[in-house]
Amino acid sequence: MGRCASSLRAVNWTGRITAPLGFAISALVFGAVAWMGARESGASGLSQDEFAGPETCRSCHQAEYESWARSPHARATNSLPENARRDPRCLRCHATSVEQNLLGVSCEACHGAGKYYWPSYVMRDRELSRLVGLRDQSPETCKTCHTADAPSLEPFDYDKAWRQIAHGKKSQAPAGK
Ligand code: HEC
Ligand code: HEC
Ligand code: HEC
Ligand code: HEC
Prior knowledge:
This protein has a domain of 113 residues. 47% of the residues lie in helices and 3% in strands. It is built from ten helices and two strands. The protein is globular. The structure holds heme C (HEC) (4 copies).
């Protein structure tokens, strides 16, 4: 009897999922699975056609965009010697996506490819945005490029480096605090 009651509850529960909601859920699950499969490709671990580009981010994050545009990251491809600007060994760290002609180290090199998370309703949802590509930031993000071989006189100091490129709500304090 107990088993009958519980299977009845299960039927009721699925029966109550409306078609549009069911569709939205499958679209989401499909999208997330496709994304997780695709992110394994590409040098940066992101698929090359999933970037939105910094101009897309700019439409809602003008202040962050301006701060970034002044930073050395925006110039990271152009500051290379001419012959190195097409060299994948250098562009691995000096560009966001060669295939999509996304030069410089732009928003998505740190925040993750934004094709699926940039719409407002996704951006406002902490979990959904992360499920479809928005990355949490940590010093590890920086250290994928700021390695011991990078031509720096001093070892990478996250708090100090963050202050040089700070933007967003935590632009006055070190990130992660
Ligand atoms: C259509 C407008 C829009 C676009 C385009 C957009 N964002 Fe956002 N973004 C938002 C909104 C709204 C929030 C939530 C702001 C808040 O809660 O203070 C947000 C939040 C964020 C956050 C903080 C999210 C969190 O949960 O910690 C980051 C990081 C971010 N955006 C980066 C980006 C990047 C990178 C791009 C480009 C790929 C981008 N955004 C494009 C509207 C947008
Ligand atoms: C592992 C990531 C990585 C790779 C690969 C890489 N770089 Fe860099 N490069 C960096 C980082 C990070 C900096 C900034 C170091 C700093 O100042 O703290 C940098 C800085 C530079 C600078 C100084 C830029 C300036 O404005 O002063 C030059 C020039 C440069 N790299 C050339 C190259 C060339 C040429 C190649 C390919 C042969 C290359 N890099 C490959 C990460 C990398
Ligand atoms: C070099 C890596 C890097 C680049 C490039 C970069 N960001 Fe960020 N961004 C960060 C870090 C780190 C934080 C601080 C995150 C934290 O600790 O909350 C941050 C914070 C933000 C926030 C605020 C999140 C919040 O809740 O306060 C927004 C919005 C944002 N970035 C958007 C952008 C946009 C738009 C661009 C490009 C125009 C960009 N970022 C480029 C690393 C980067
Ligand atoms: C995709 C690779 C990449 C990532 C990720 C990255 N950087 Fe960079 N960063 C570079 C390159 C390349 C340069 C050199 C730019 C130039 O001058 O040509 C640089 C330069 C800088 C500089 C200027 C150094 C100087 O001496 O002028 C600072 C500060 C910096 N990065 C901070 C950060 C921080 C903080 C993070 C993480 C939140 C980060 N970067 C993530 C590639 C990266």
